[in-house]
Automatic annotation (TrEMBL):
<feature type="domain" description="NAD(P)-binding">
    <location>
        <begin position="24"/>
        <end position="327"/>
    </location>
</feature>
<dbReference type="InterPro" id="IPR036291">
    <property type="entry name" value="NAD(P)-bd_dom_sf"/>
</dbReference>
<dbReference type="Pfam" id="PF16363">
    <property type="entry name" value="GDP_Man_Dehyd"/>
</dbReference>
<dbReference type="InterPro" id="IPR045869">
    <property type="entry name" value="Arna-like_SDR_e"/>
</dbReference>
<dbReference type="InterPro" id="IPR016040">
    <property type="entry name" value="NAD(P)-bd_dom"/>
</dbReference>
<protein>
    <submittedName>
        <fullName>GDP-mannose 4,6-dehydratase</fullName>
    </submittedName>
</protein>
Amino acid sequence: MSETSSAATATPPNTAAPGTTVAVTGAEGFIGSHLVEALVATGHRVRAMVQYNSFSSFGWLETLPNDVMAHVEVVLGDVRDPGSVGGLLRGTEAVYHLAALIAIPYSYRAPHSYVETNVTGTLNVLEAVRHLEIPRLVHTSTSEIYGTAQTVPITEDHPVNTQSPYAASKAGGDRLADSYHAGFGTPVVTLRPFNTFGPRQSMRAVIPTVIGQVAAGQTTITLGDLRPTRDFTFVKDTAAAFLAVGTAPAADVVGRTFNAGTGGEISVGDLVALVGKLMDTPLDVREDAQRVRPADAEVMRLVCDASRLRAATGWAPAHTLEGGLEHTIAFFRDPANLARYKTDLYNV
């Protein structure tokens, strides 16, 4: 996102102080539910959008303690509907926009749905923030927009190289956020997390795939390519990064994009070996062809430079990779949690 804006004629006020009401889209999901917890823990009231479903399921929010949910208003809706978004945001002091379709393999099967949610949904949020004059919007990007690293570590100035429909749709949302800040002075800040992991993550991601299979008693693990390297950030640290950019003085963050990651790097193969060690289980890893991305689509290397975020807000990860993995392993070893997953199926 551009660092300056000629159209932003006034500095937006600081926002989202404890006690204020904030909105979270995608609140029922993996990162969203952890962010809701973090917001409540810091004294906020949360209006949480959960995608409408006929089961009245609140997703992972249903697992949060009653003393947390006492400060949460769940709103069933859909970011693809402008009226739904407007109703959610009215009367809030900040918006954390996390709602998205995120599974990379599925984006090849259903690319239109990714555009509708990740681009049009983001447009609806931007329009509502603009017309309702919400003081702060935190827009969620992804490290996938960079594609395979051309230089490391990856700064926010790294070229955009979208290698999947998912990445392209997220880049489209980013560009809309840029344009609304430049053209309307909309108080947007973009957070670009690298690979987040932890309790509640879906089996579409590599860490829960490995841990879930081992927790279910399997020692032969099926995966895709073991060569790519990633910068894995524990989910509580990612939630803290959202809070950091959502509550920092406007002059320090509005109109800017921030990477959030550890600066560490590990290959999928070495990650599997580490999980096996921590779970005290020798693993036999086998490649599953349906899990392998097309040759030109695989992002081979991602490693984060988060120095801009650290300088602006003081944020730094508080968890090591091993520490985060231990928390995640404990979560999946709880039979009640493991029962929520289908560890024997490939989750796209």
